[in-house]
Fold these 3 entries.
Entry 1:
Amino acid sequence: MCGIVGYWGPEKPKAIILDGLRRLEYRGYDSTGVAIFDHGQLKVERSPGKLHRLEEKLRGIEFEGPTGIGHTRWATHGEPNEKNAHPHKVGGVAIVHNGIIENYGSIQKRLVSEGVELKSETDSELIAHLLDEKLREGATLLKATLEVIPKLEGAYSILVVNEKEPDSMVAFKNGPPMLVGLGNKEVIIASDIQAVITRTPRVVYLDDGEIVTSIKGAVKFYNSKGDEIRKDVHEVKWSQAMAEKAGFDHFMQKEIFEQPQALRQTMEGHLEHEPLRVVLKSSGLTDDEYRNFKRIQLIACGTSWHAAMVAKYVFERVTGIPTDVDIASEFHYRHLTLDPQTLAVTVSQSGETADTLACLRRVKKMGLRTLSVCNVPHSSIDREAHGRIYTNAGAEIGVCSTKSFTAQIVALELLSFHMARLRKSCSDEELKNYISGLLALPGQVEICLNHDKWFREAAQSLTKFRGFLYLGRGVNFPVALEGALKLKEITYLHAEGYPSGELKHGPIALVDNNMIIVALAPKDELYEKNISNIQEVKARGGQIIAIGSGDDQGLEKISKHYLSIPEAVWSANPVLESIPIQLLSYHLAVALNRDVDQPRNLAKSVTVE
């Protein structure tokens, strides 16, 4: 979703704001802009398209002032053009806005009836008009903000500057993230830690309904009533190097290859070796609670939903607890009948996914205990859940999730093995086998990464096929869904994921010699049934890329291409299978000359419904 950066300090704001916007490009956007003080006035420059077009407009332009704001926009109201790009300036006030103002229609109607001339098609411009009204009445920027907030309905994070207060910034939020970086005699206000981490590790996160003011670097926080409040300062552990490509061509490629280390970091601190067992550290829920839950409800979106689907198979098998998985955008609007002894687990890489956050708040009101699985400490979902497990995968910049998916699977399996030990639903020997499978994963993933060369060489020949069908059974079926999603996201080719057993119920009609079939067939209890389904595809001319366990000559014989993953316990196979499907999508996208890290129409984290 859109990116916000604001700066006050001794250095030139232009360079710092542009650098911050560049680090937010991964979120997805269609236009950019800045508003920077120059000799006491706000100078606004905006451009549709990528950031380099704005940089070209700004080349040679100098700004003499300490304060500025910038924005990367992902269009919601109004098409992506210059007039709809942010910042929006009205009178002496300029704003940047993430989110959607749901009551924009009534605000717009009132302003137009009073003779206000609107210059854009956006809901965001209306906020600037409301603030300008109050400022012209003599209010300070803080007082104007306090009077405007009750007039806004929807999800928003907003950063404001005013020509009458050139050393000031005011920001407020209700939904999308906003944070404050406290640097050396400088303040950076942004929507994402990536825009801040190169300047300072000291960060304060705004909660909904809160306001921050920065006046000559003095930062104060207020609630929606205008009462000053105290906020904790957090030391962010991500380093600048984690956000750089480190010699790889794309962030996605780098993040695929970071998975061995990411998985080690996910497991770190949660495993005891004598005896070998999972003990979740500081998850926020008690052992007695884990023993007594009668149901598990997993809630997520996109790739995180696929990780949760994998976890369903594991939870039900090792804990014996009935487990449901729901897409957050559907779950939120259902008429729910949930047992109060249900554990609600929300899964989100960013911890800011709007639909998932709304579900978390709903189940909390229903009295359920909640646990978050996310990658970003102090994010909204992390802060609001009763308990938490961090994936600790490090910064993920590519829009197309890779290491976050496998880290989420491992984090959820850690939870299931922890609960199984406490509930005695698995024998010690079974649990030891499962945990040994987790410990082996980083090394086995490194072996799977050797398929990179094959996909790099095969990618050009794969571009001629008209469609891709991913098949899997049992715990491998969600990986088939994830493989199809990855391909769609960054190649723009058609792909579908199906349970292998559903072939004869319709999808087999698609199969001919122009269709690639990616068959996930590791050796497990469903292996023989999987082989039968693959034979059906082969008989109809499907071009089969099979992913199986070890030296499987039978599977290799019926496949056009056979790729081997190490033999592993069934619960580890989804992680190992994920590596070749990620490499397939990546190299095919490169061969098609797609924008791998910033695919069209997509944002890294969806912070509005």
Entry 2:
Amino acid sequence: MIDLNKIPECEKTPLVISLIQMVRSFIIELQSMRDEIARLKKQKGKPKIPPSRLEKDPEEEKEKEKDKKNKKKPKKRPGSKKRNKTEKLTIHETIPVPPKDLPPGSKLIGSRNWFVQGLIIQAHNVCYQLEKWKTPDGKVVSGALPDSVNGHFDMMLRSFILQQHHQCHVTQPLILEELRDIGVDISAGQVNRILTEKNDAFHAEKDQILAAGLEVSDYIQVDDTGARHDGKNGYCTHIGNSFFAWFKSTESKSRLNFLNLLQAGRSDYVVNKDAVSYMRDKKLTTSHLENLENSTTTQFESEADWEQHLKALGIETSRHIKIATEGALLGSILHHGFSKELVIISDDAGQFNILLHALCWVHAERTIHKLIGCSEEECTAIEQIRDRIWMLYRGLKAYKEKPDPQTKHELEKQFDEIFATQTCSEVLDAALGRIAKNKTELLLVLERPDIPLHNNLSESDIREYVKKRKISGGTRSENGRKSRDTFISLKKTCRKLGVSYWDYLKDRISKSKTIPPLPELIRERAQSG
């Protein structure tokens, strides 16, 4: 590593300092690549960059340190109060156990219960004898299979396969091996078909989750990750909040793709005032804008109809088509009731920056966190700025709990002072300037105290997809990709609504309908606050 102290003062020009910063960044990036190679070779690498401090309250950390020094026992965590472990336990069998070698004439005076929990895991095969009867009038009638029977594998077995693969991340070969060990006669193809085919009811419910979530939410959190499909790189987009989680894998992560997802299953294009306003903001040429505005047809049912309309108007340049299409899609989602007051929270990926947009403070602070000081003075300046950002963040958290105009003004002033600071580091000043440009999106919480300050929920949700991708790899068939998106969406949504995923799978496959549709539960949760 280059030691700045060994460079004469007369040679420490801004250009030299900037080049040293670049070299240090390249060294760290090279080391991270070496660590990744070591990980893939199952060798040990250096630990990754430490996480952001924004979510760790320094006051709590100080209290922990004091407790350690004073050897005090840590406070009991919330919810750790002793409970009756058998209060909600269903007893399936009761076995009386008398004492051994009981003398004649003894009398029973009571008993003490000893509860043992267990599982019965074994093959259970049923033969349905579909009887044929001949009625007095000569007509032949046959018995019908129960509604819960769909094929040659029962509800419990199909639920088990889905639960093992999507909730427990067990791969298909291991599921096959496990079932054969238990005594189930099943092939690899049949396991794959249960996982990927005849799941239309699940797909339909998953699609309704997004529509319900957008309908009742004040904000959504969004993120995306890589999703390899059929040997090609793609992306999976997450949309959700505390009520729901929804995933969709596509070939693109563009704004066009995001607007398509927000349509929640619709496929129309609408040229209205909102669409025209968007096109104007994105600098669509005046002639094209006038042609679209003056057209008698403003709503198009399909992509083919929309493309034909653009061609008829002479809009053929790729950039102009892109702007017009984005505007028409935005016009469509607003036409169908998408609220302009719904806040979209992201990590500053450009495709999500539409309508009312807020940024994640953790990602913003990471810009400063990644900087490497070339001298002791520069390192001190970086730490001081980070401490001031932390103080501002704590102020924003307090404001969310108790908003008032005076505090709002003080926090805006504090933001301006921090991100207009001139330090001894040009790189730090440039990073502060970049963050300052995002003031409106970072301080949207002052207008909307109901929204989160970070995008951690979305990152946590999408980690479920990343975990699945690392274990099972990419998808190969369209059914496989669709099923992965569907069952991860259903699983995460069930978890947020407090519904057992295992019970949910059994309920839907058996068609017992004891668990209400998830979109209904989302609406109920939103109404109850």
Entry 3:
Amino acid sequence: MYQLWEESGAFTPKHEKGKSPFTIIMPPPNANDPLHIGHAREVSTQDILIRYHRMKGDPTLWLPGADHAGIETQYVYEKKLRKEGKSRFDFDRKELYQKIWDYVQDNKQLMEGQLKRLGASCDWTRNKFTLDEDIVDIVYETFKSLYDDGHVYRGERIVNYCPRCGTNFSELEVDHVEQDGQMYYLDYGLLTIATARPETIFADVAVAVNPKDKRYSKLVGKTAVIPLVKREVPIIADKLVEKEYGTGALKVTPGHDATDFEIGQRHKLPTLSVIDKDGKMTGTPSKYVGLKALTARQEVVDDLKKAGKLVKTKKIRHVVSLCYRDKGQIEPLVSKQWFLKVEPLVKPALKAIANKDVRFVAKKYEKIAKHWLKNLKDWNISRQVIWGIQIPAWRCDSCLSWTITKGEAPSECDKCGKSKLSRDSDTFDTWFSSGQWPFATLMTTKPGDFDYFYPTSVMDPSYDILPFWVIRMLMLGLYRTNKVPFRDVLLHGLVRDKHGVKISKSKGNVVDPIEMIDKYGSDALRVALVWGSLVENDNSLSEENIKAQRNFANKVWNVARFISQDTLQQKSRQPSAKHKDDKEIAEELKAVIKKTTASLDKYRLNEAAEGLYDFVWNVFANEYLEKTKDRREDALPMLTYVLQETLKLLHPFMPFVSEAVWQNCFSNGKKDLLITASWPGK
């Protein structure tokens, strides 16, 4: 059936003058794993909208693609290597990149096959990958333009670094989790400080107190003494110090804390580091050098106790920063990275939301988007991984300045003209490239696509990537094209199990979409995934839900069988309704067409599906069919007409069974497909 649709050309729209297109750019699934149940909900939602608009006669484009997914994919591949007794360090850059490329291409094909099994009627002639050469060229052009406009800089700042993944992350990619811990109160001479990280005392450069804290006002300008090393540091005043936290006296360690770094910058303090990129101690008294930070903590505490400098300890509940990939502790480290100034990009995005140029279907997400935009800090867009788009920046060995290009290697330094240049080994944060996905895809598909299909109609990712992706697409889309990348933002909820618990491998409640398709059919899974909740809300799914929708698909099939197929080879025009039962079903059909259309226009997919279920099962099958058993020949024109229109209404939700029935009952061959039939009322 899918092959029949694809070969018909139904998936591939043309540019039709005078007609407004309906366009969805598929949020590209990560090309490192098979599709999960969340993808299945996303695909089902988008395909329902696509099939509906196609039947309405709109030039309808659903552009598919896959995301290389940067650190996500490298992390998955490194786990595979570990099972083979290998690591990323066993290969040079080129070898590792090629191995990941081959792995991704295999998985990408698997993923695309799964999309087809779900019934995704996307245009495979326009299929894109975030590492396609022409997409990479667009990303390079954007970076070069941002750099030339003064929006990109290379700076030494504190970043969130994962020693195990070997890269830094933006603040958005760090999990902030409450944990039990210890607060250590240490004797610093003139005052006592409280810290949860005593292993970093060797990188202290000051002690800070709040300027309004009368307890310490006379100490400002004097010196404190770091225990164990007995190094003196100044006591300073800064508004960022919380008077009520700990003792109200803060050890300032700019090399290992974001707040301390800000204080250090303001007071022009030096920055010292005592933890390296492997998470090990360095630049400390020799007995701690080489120890992992957590191991060193206990050693330092023991030595402080022996030296009489540990005043007391206290159990606390505090927030700890964890790597979102391996859930290990993040180390705030000072590092030179590429940063994007967000302020010039945030203002146009907020203006577009205020002017309704872009509309959030659920108002609650508009508030969240504006909150994130207003609180964004400069975006660290460089990553220390192999897999991804390498940053087009070359450093001059002579003057140490940077030359930025659109990807090509420069012949000489922009600043001094010397020719000895070396390329930065960092890659772009994957969200930087995927943040350009809507315009980058349409600029690199078919001639005229960008002008015709952009801005797109709807963007439909899950709500949990609103800050990672949606607001960044808005920022970069407006910067590059002066237009919003999409008109409507339809964020969908997560899939939960029947008890409302989030589905995850660790909880053992995973629902495999392909397994459910094998067991109950794609149509049953699709309807179950939009049943019972609005798109923007979480959906509770169980095998029982899917089985119930399989029974509904069977009901549709059996209704068609009951109506004599011998007389269904010609499409039926709306028959005259003389009998009161015929009049009633005609009115019921008219009402369900109106309700389904209105619900789909408002993205209330569950209401449309539930209304159709009730109409088919109760009104059409249980009531009208039963009433016409004694006058089948007389009622046959109405039965035929109602079935025909009902199949059209069902098609976006249950494309396979509706098309199969249509082919058996109403089709004159490949040219006469339900997928391209006109929507009822059109």
